């Protein structure tokens, strides 16, 4: 991400480490390039990232509550290029999460059952939908897709086809897309 050791993040994370007694004096004067190795060598890297994650979660909770004042029935969805693993995204998910309704996670990741179990163990209530690009699927793929969508994931979403050279940007006709979706539902 590149922001975890900027001055603002460093001050926030260091404040938590200092309050917990993990960090002593002299840490606040460390130059940018020395911050990661110093935390790593002191065994404080995981605590530091957790402090940053907690800060993001607190801010996201405030935002979530403001939004829910306007629309109580709203569900939140996150479209990510890969399953979340960094402090910032995990903090967002924790902050927007509610125990009575899952966050909807949209990724192209195919096998998510074990990952979702890890997130749920951390108290993040997620449901996953896998990305489908209908124009790249052939008729023989549909039985495997059905298993992927209805057994390995909680559903699917239609990802936009990425332009990839001459003739790029060509989309399926609506009737073709409808036919493919009906085939999937069978």
Characterization of this structure:
This protein has 186 residues and is α/β, with parallel strands linked by helices. 49% of the residues lie in helices and 10% in strands. It has helices at 7-19, 32-42, 45-70, 87-96, 113-121, 142-152, 174-185, and strands at residues 77-79, 103-107, 126-132, 156-158. Strands 1-2-3-4 form a four-stranded parallel sheet, with helices on one face. Helix 5 (113-121) links the parallel strand 2 (103-107) and strand 3. Helix 1 (7-19) packs across helix 3 (45-70) and helix 3 (45-70) runs parallel beside helix 4. The chain is elongated and about 65 Å long. The two termini are 42 Å apart. Residues 163-169 have low confidence and may be disordered.
Brief rundown of the structure:
Helix content is 49%, strand content 10%.
Count of DSSP-assigned helices: 7
Radius of gyration: 21 Å
Could you tell me the number of beta strands?
A: 4
- Strand line-up across the major sheet: 1-2-3-4
Distance separating the two termini: 42 Å
SSE map:
Layout: H1 7-19, H2 32-42, H3 45-70, E1 77-79, H4 87-96, E2 103-107, H5 113-121, E3 126-132, H6 142-152, E4 156-158, H7 174-185
Parallel strand pairs: 1-2, 2-3, 3-4
Helix pairs in contact: 1-3, 3-4
